[in-house]
Write a structure and sequence with these properties.
Elements lengths: L1 E2 L9 E3 L23 H4 L5 H8 L4 E3 L2 H7 L7 E3 L1 H7 L4 E6 L10 H13 L4 E6 L3 H13 L2 E7 H6 L1 H9 L3 E5 L10 H13 L4 E3 L6 H7 L1 H12 L7 E5 L4 H7 L9 E7 L4 H4 L1 E6 L8 E6 L21 H8 L3 E6 L1 H15 L5 H20 L4 E6 L7 H8 L7
Parallel strand pairs: 5-15, 6-7, 6-9, 7-8, 10-11, 10-15, 11-14
Antiparallel strand pairs: 1-4, 2-3, 4-5, 12-13
Helix pairs in contact: 2-10, 3-5, 4-15, 5-6, 6-8, 10-12, 11-12, 15-16
Bound molecules: pyridoxal-5'-phosphate (PLP).
C-alpha cells in the first residue's frame, strides 16, 4: 500500500531542530585560533544564506519557490507499507518506508543539493567544488548544478572512481567534471576525508568557487527534514497516530536527520541510527572536537569521531565510510534521545536481499543497514506480540551497486 501526497503538499518550510535540541550544540571552532567560527570565517566556502541557516534559531525556515519547483520533479515521495516483508517475517509490526530512491540521482541527496545550488546561484557563484565517496552525493550535486547552470567540480574517492564507472558517467552526463582523489597521490585509494581536503582546497584558492557538503552540517540536515515532515502527513493518511520507532542508516547523518528530526519533540518516539561495525563512529567513537577532513583544513566540529586520520575498510556502503558524524546526531546520541547500533556488512546484505525478494526494490548498500535494523525490530515485536509501528528511510536504490550484490551472492563479501 502506497500513501501519496499531492504535488502542492511538499512542505513549504523546513523544520529547524536547533531551538528544540535537548542540549544546545557547542559551536564549531576555527582550525587555527580554536575560537568559535563566525560567519566571515565561512564566507569563502559557503553563501551567506546557508551560513545563516547553519546557526539559525528560527523554528521554521521557508523553502524558496524556485527550490520547490525543482523538488516537485519527484516530491512528495511515496510512503509505502512493506506488507510483503511483514508477512515474510510473520510480525505483528507495521513497517512503513519513505521512498527517497525516486529522485533523479536515486537517493535523498538532491533534497539538499538543490537548495545549496540555488543559494550559491543567488549570491553569484559560478562554480562549486565537492567530494564524493561512492558517487551518490556527487551525482545529486551534478544534477542540481545543471538546473542552475553552475559549473560542478567533483573529487571522487579514487577506489570508487576506478570501481564504479557508472556513477562517474551519471555525473558527466549532468555536466560535471570528475577527477580521482587524492589528486597529489595517484597510488592512494583515497578516502572521504582526503577528498573533502581536495574540494575545500579548490574552493578556498579560487574566487569564483564555493564548496558544498552533502551531509554532516546543520543546514544539510535542515534541508532533509522534508522527508520526515511528509512522512508525518502520510502516516496520518495511513491512520497511524505516530511511529513507535524511526530508523535510518547513518554516514554523516543527513538521511537519518531528515526522517528523524521532526520527531525529536515527540518524546515517546524512539529514534535509531544504524552504522557499519567497520566504521562505528557513534557506537565506538569518542565525543570530541575533530576536523571534518583528513588534512585538518575544516573547522573543528563537536561530534563522535574515530579520528580524522581513520581510513575505514573498503566496505560497499561507501556513504557510511566517514570518520565523524553530524554534530546534531552526535548530540542526540550523547544525551540519550537517539539510540545507535552497528552491523557487519554481511548481515546488512542478507536484509537487503530479503527486502528485494519481498518488496521488489533493490536497496543501496547504505540503506541495507537501516533495513537490517528494521527486520530485527520487527522480529523483536514478533517475540513479544507487539503491534509496533516502524518507520524507516529508504535512502537510495542499489541499481548502480550491483557488483556489491554480485560479491554477496557469490561469497566474496568480506565481513568488515
Ligand atoms: C543511499 C545513501 N544512503 C545513506 C547515505 C549516508 O549518508 P547520510 O548519513 O548523510 O545520509 C548515503 C551517502 O552517500 C547514500 O548514498
Amino acid at each position: 500500500m502506497r500513501y501519496q501526497l499531492a504535488p502542492e503538499q511538499i512542505p513549504a518550510a523546513w523544520f529547524n531542530v536547533l531551538p528544540v535540541m535537548p542540549e544546545p550544540l557547542q559551536p564549531p571552532l576555527h582550525p587555527g585560533t580554536k575560537q568559535p567560527v563566525g560567519p566571515d570565517d565561512l564566507a569563502p566556502l559557503f553563501p551567506m544564506a546557508l551560513i545563516a541557516q547553519e546557526m539559525s534559531a528560527e523554528p521554521w525556515i521557508d523553502v524558496p519557490g524556485e527550490v520547490l519547483d525543482i523538488l516537485r520533479l519527484w516530491r512528495p515521495t511515496p510512503l509505502v507499507r512493506a506488507e510483503r516483508l511483514e508477512r515474510a517475517l510473520g510480525t505483528p509490526a507495521r513497517i512503513y518506508y519513505k521512498d527517497e530512491s525516486v529522485s533523479p540521482a536515486g537517493s535523498h541527496k538532491p533534497n539538499t543539493a538543490v537548495p545549496q545550488a540555488f543559494y550559491n546561484k543567488a549570491e553569484g557563484v559560478v562554480r562549486i567544488a565537492t567530494e564524493t565517496g561512492a558517487g551518490q552525493w556527487g551525482s545529486a550535486l551534478a544534477f542540481s548544478c545543471a538546473q542552475f547552470d553552475i559549473e560542478c567540480m567533483v573529487y571522487m574517492v579514487r577506489a570508487s572512481y576506478q570501481q564504479k564507472p557508472y556513477r562517474k558517467i551519471l555525473m558527466e552526463t549532468w555536466g560535471a567534471h570528475v577527477v580521482p582523489s587524492p589528486v597529489d597521490d595517484p597510488e592512494s585509494p583515497g578516502s572521504l576525508g582526503l577528498a573533502i581536503s581536495d574540494a575545500v582546497r579548490d574552493a578556498a584558492t579560487r574566487d569564483d568557487t564555493h564548496y558544498s557538503l552533502g551531509s554532516v552540517l546543520n543546514h544539510v540536515l535542515l534541508h532533509q527534514t522534508v522527508i520526515g515532515l511528509e512522512a508525518k502527513d502520510q502516516l496520518a493518511l495511513a491512520g497511524e497516530e505516530r511511529p513507535d520507532v524511526v530508523i535510518g542508516c547513518c554516514g554523516g547523518g543527513s538521511n537519518l536527520g531528515g526522517i528523524a528530526l521532526p520527531f525529536v519533540p515527540d518524546a515517546d518516539v524512539r529514534l535509531v541510527a544504524v552504522e557499519p561495525s567497520s566504521c562505528p563512529t557513534l557506537t565506538e567513537g569518542i565525543f570530541d572536537y575533530d576536523f571534518g577532513d583528513t588534512a585538518g583544513m575544516t573547522p573543528l566540529l563537536p561530534m563522535y569521531t574515530l579520528g580524522h586520520e581513520f581510513i575505514p575498510p573498503s566496505i560497499h556502503a561507501g556513504g557510511l565510510r566517514y570518520h565523524g558524524d553530524s554534530p546534531i546526531i552526535s548530540s542526540l546520541v550523547r544525551c540519550g534521545r537517539m539510540e545507535a547500533i552497528a552491523y557487519p556488512q554481511g548481515k546488512t546484505f542478507e536484509a537487503a536481499v530479503q527486502f528485494a525478494r519481498t518488496e521488489g526494490k533493490i536497496p543501496a548498500p547504505e540503506t541495507g543497514h537501516a533495513i537490517r535494523a528494521v527486520i530485527d525490530e520487527a522480529l523483536a515485536a514478533k517475540e513479544t506480540g507487539e503491534e509496533r509501528v516502524i518507520l524507516f528511510n529508504y535512502s537510495g536504490h542499489g541499481l548502480l551497486d550491483l557488483s556489491a550484490y554480485d560479491d554477496f551472492l557469490n561469497g566474496r563479501l568480506i565481513d568488515g
